[in-house]
Design a protein that fits this description.
111 residues, mainly beta, 4-stranded antiparallel beta sheet
């Protein structure tokens, strides 16, 4: 059974940092792109970041320069380092890859 399990969310003040992790199991994702979406309260799901199998990364304009995506293929894990967090970053952050989705980890940024 393929699973993506996120962790690392929590409550942080404006300007703070968090590191999210997404651990995959059931198959290797080393040859596939992986990434993050988020869904804030009352909002649609939106793209955050993506990393290809070769390590090339892409970001939404709203997080560029503040968030960094990385991956460890040996651990079948993708990370999202988030810095300079703003209340607008409050959302459930979901990991995805080739049609598989995690349940998400909640990030709340207080003002």
């Amino acid at each position: 059974q393929v699973q993506l399990v996120e962790s690392g969310g929590g409550l942080v003040q404006t300007g703070g940092s968090l590191r999210l992790s997404c651990a995959a199991s059931g198959r290797s994702f080393s040859g596939d792109a992986m990434g993050w979406f988020r869904q804030g309260p009352g909002k649609e799901r939106e793209f955050v970041a993506r990393i290809t199998s070769s390590g090339r990364d892409y970001y939404a304009d709203s997080v560029k320069g503040r968030f960094t995506i990385s991956r460890d293929n040996a651990k079948n894990t993708v990370y999202l380092q988030m810095s300079s967090l703003e209340p607008e970053d409050t959302a459930n952050y979901l990991c995805y890859s080739i049609g598989y989705w995690g349940q998400g980890t909640q990030v709340t940024v207080s003002s």
